[in-house]
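Exercise 3.2. Students should predict the tertiary structure of the chain below and write it as structure tokens, then compare their answer with the key that follows.

Predict this chain's 3D structure.
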Amino acid sequence: MRRACPGVLVPLALTLGLGAGACATPPEREIRLAEAAIASAQEAHADVIAPAEFAAAVVFLDQSRDAVALGDYRLALSRALDAREQAEVARRQAEERRVVIARDVEMTLVTIQAVRDQATANLSDARTSPSSYPGLADLEATLATADRAVQEARSALARGEPVTARDQLVGVLEQLREAVDALAVTAPVSS
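Answer key:
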């Protein structure tokens, strides 16, 4: 009969014993840390800016809670740690993407201002003979709408909400360009 080597069994027994003891209670601390990380990610608007990463963190946290309910504390611990890590990834990505979005909004605002300046110059010319420019009222209305959108976007940027600012500007540049082009098409021909 062959005997097992006691040098191997003792460390194995200790490892198994310690592993079982480490997960004998619900990982409440780790779950609280994961919840805090998710809250921090949400404050950084990760749910909007990094939705896939944020959703993964929430799923891991739900799985951790489900595992606690089933008494599988080892799985609960693993999922709580995953939730925390994923929430931290979501927060970091949201912060990085916010910077990029804010920069893109600033560039869009500069472009809108350039097109608006062109529109204002065209308006000045058109106002000298308004009956010759049927698109004049449309351009004036589009300028007013663009001005409101720009003001709201700038306010959102000042509040640290670049996503809201970006959303305020959706379609504004295109509408301005269309109105400027429409006015140019209807301009009377000089003799």
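Discussion points: DSSP finds eight helices and no strands in the chain. Residues 25-95 form one domain.
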